Amino acid sequence: MPLTTSAKKALRQTKRRTERNKARKTALKAAIKKALAEKTPASVSAAYQAADKSVKNHIIPKNKASRIKSKLARLIA
Fold first, then answer.
1. DSSP state, residue 19
2. What is the spatial distance between Cα 10 and Cα 13, in angstroms, rounded to a whole number?
3. Which of 16, 27, 32, 62 has the most CB atoms lying inside 10 A of its own CB?
């Protein structure tokens, strides 16, 4: 357990950020799963948007988002 006040605050911040990041990552995975199942332009677009937001918030690396988007683009083509 943290002893100093600043370490306690850092622990609280880390817990909040971890929760938020997990939620974003789960939302991305759900969007990808939905797009793979439905294969509609709207669901693929939503997954694209989720991937881009995840990159913007540093949840996943840029190249992983590129791979995801490439995989989804093949569904529509």
1. H
2. 5
3. 32
Q: Could you report the per-residue pLDDT of 1-49, keeping only the tens digit for each?
A: 899 999 999 999 999 999 999 999 999 999 999 999 999 999 999 999 9
Contact in structure between 61 and 55 (CB atoms under 8 Å)? yes
| Dihedral-angle region of residue 40 (phi above 0 means left; psi in -120 to 50 means alpha; beta otherwise) | beta
Cα–Cα distance, 40 to 35 (Å, whole number): 7
Tokens of 23: 């939620």
Integer CA distances (angstroms), 6 to 1, 17, 31, in order: 12, 16, 37
Residue-range domains of the chain with CATH: 5-76 (1.20.58)
Q: Is the pLDDT of residue 77 over 90?
A: no
